[in-house]
Amino acid sequence: MKKVIDAIKQFNKERDWDKFHTPENIAKSIVIEAGELLECFQWGSEYDYKQVCDELADVMNYCIVMADKLGVDMETIVLNKLEETRAKYPVDKCKGVSTKYDKL
Question: Is 50 exposed, middle or buried (0-12, 13-18, 19+ CB in 10 A)?
């Protein structure tokens, strides 16, 4: 991930975009790009693979920028959240079902 993070930071630095990347603006951009990702599936299960990948990359790029702005390590927060989720959804209660944790 370091190569990706460094490339994104360099891209933004070259364009002097860092001044626009407040946590609020980045959060808005994540939601906007996630909406564009969702739009790829708006009318059914057929989708354009490249367009989905492009929109997914946009979401990920903004998430990386947000993590950098907040000074958090993405690997750490993702693994910590996975542990929390693992506790909410024990395999013996949730395997093969999509029930929310509070209804298991």
Answer: exposed
Tokens (6 digits) for 72: 């958090």
Cα angle 21, 25, 28; round to 5:
140
Per-residue pLDDT tens digits for 41-93: 999 989 999 999 999 999 999 999 999 999 999 999 999 999 999 999 999 99
C-alpha dist (Å) from residue 81 to 42, 61, 67, 75, 76? 29, 20, 14, 10, 9
Tell me the C-alpha distance between 37 and 54, whole Å.
8
What span, in angstroms and rounded, lies between the C-alpha atoms of 77 and 70?
Answer: 12
